Structures are given as C-alpha cells and as structure tokens.
Amino acid sequence: MSAAIALRRDAKALAQRVAWQDWDGAAASLDACGHAILPGLLDEPECRAIAALYDRPDGFRSRVVMARHGFGSGEYRYFAYPLPATVAMLRSTVYPQLAPIANRWNEAMGIDVRYPGAHEDFLRRCHEAGQSRPTPLLLRYDAGDYNCLHQDLYGEHVFPLQMAVLLSQPGVDFEGGEFVLTEQRPRMQSRADVVPLRRGDAVVFAVHHRPVAGTRGTYRVNLRHGVSRVRSGRRHTLGVVFHDAL
Q1: Cβ(131)–Cβ(243) under 8 Å?
Q2: pLDDT, mean over the chain
Q3: Nearest to 222 by CA among 184, 193, 189
Q4: Phi/psi class of residue 228: alpha, beta or left (left: φ > 0; alpha: ψ in -120 to 50)?
Q5: Residues 206 and 98: beta-carbon distance below 8 Å
Q6: Full-prediction pTM beyond 0.90?
Q7: Which secondary-structure segment (H or E) carries 16?
Q8: Rounded to whole angstroms, what are the CA distances from 240 to 39, 123, 177, 233?
Q9: Among 93, 115, 95, which Cα is nearest to 103's?
Q10: Of 118, 156, 181, 208, most Cβ neighbours within 10 A?
C-alpha cells in the first residue's frame, strides 16, 4: 500500500470517528457542565505518532517552558503551518459540529458575534484581523509537572470552545496529571471538575465563558482549565484551539 493511499484511508477513518460521535449528547453535556468527552477520537497509533512529533526539530513555530512564565511546570510547542494532517483534519471537522453550539451560547449571553459554519471562513476572519499564527499545540509533562488554571485567549477573535486530546495512557504511561476545570459563578465559590480521560479521548470545553440559566435570566460563568501534578511518567496532550493568535 502506498503512503498516499494509507493517508487517505487514515483520513477517512478519522473523519468517520468525528462524524459518529454523539454530538447531541456532547451539546447537552456542554450546556450542563461546560465540557463534553469525545471517546476514542484518536486511535493508539495516531496518538503515538502525534506525541512522537514533539522531539522533531521542524514543524513548530515556538516552544514554551512554562516555569519561565509562571504558567506551571512542563513545556509545550505550537505547531507551524502547514499543520500535521491529523491535526488539521481534527480542526476542520470538529469545528462545524461546535459552531451551532457557540452561536447558541452567544445568543443566550447577549453577545452579537456569530460563527460561520466552515472553519476556513472563521480563520479568514482571524487572519484579516492580524491573528494569523496557528494555535494547535503539543504539550509534554514529566513527573512533577502541572499546568496552572488558565484561559487560551489570543486576540480579539475567540472561538468559545476548544479541545484537548490525551495522547498517553493513564496508569501506564503516567500517574496523576488529571485534566481539571473550574467554574466561577457570580457570588458563589469556585467549583472544580476533574475530567476522566483515556488515551485517544478528547474533551471539548468552554474557553472562558458559558451561559447558565438562573432565576433572573441567563448569566455568564467564568471557566479556567489546567492539569494537576503528574506523579510519575510522561504525559502528552494535543491542544486544538480553533482561533489563531496575534
């Protein structure tokens, strides 16, 4: 089998896995708690192949050592354009599933911004505003590393949902290192949620706000995400942000 044929078959399988996700269930989960798990979005060979990219000298635009910036401990690298085929396909095929949810959320929160149905059209909006640097990233944590709670905002144009795919197997490749979300509601204490993931699972979550229905109407809650301390081993994650950066 030629490499080109294998690539086409892999791309078709990935597109089917995206299409076969329970998107109605994902929308309900996002509405209820601000995140949704997409089980088995990538298979093990795809996870290993993407994680192995981390040590390559090319294909990235920058490397961030988190401790230097007070972001936590560990490091990550932003991919350069053109993105790896799997990453590009995830971005372009998952976005159309999320755009209706993002539009519905903005309407509920009284935000005028609406998102086009195709990711390339949204990226064009970002690039015309000067946000042209790609934001998908590959993160690597070793024992003792963690990621402080944060929000991935890179400019004026922000798509309100993003995705992280766990590339390593908990309990085998690493211990600890749970994906954590916190939610701050007005006049209430912050609430934390630990999201259980297996290798290849993705979690879609709110970048910074989501609507919540209250007794006096809909209000915005503020979300942050991070990773708890890795107890042992090595953990790789693929981050898929749908807006580009300044």
Answers
A1: yes
A2: 93
A3: 184
A4: beta
A5: no
A6: yes
A7: helix 3-19
A8: 16, 14, 18, 23
A9: 115
A10: 181
Sign of CA dihedral 83, 89, 90, 95: positive
Q: What is the pLDDT of residues 83-99, one digit of tens each?
A: 999 999 999 999 999 99
Contact 235, 174 (CB under 8 A): yes
Name, in order, each residue with C-beta under 8 angstroms of 59's C-beta and a sequence gap of 6 or more: 53, 79, 80, 84
| Helices assigned H by DSSP within 35-84 | 44-52, 66-69
Going by C-alpha positions, the residue among 149, 154, 156, 36 that lies closest to residue 98 is 36
pLDDT of residue 9: 57
β-strand partners of 63: 77
Higher local confidence (pLDDT), 121 or 3:
121
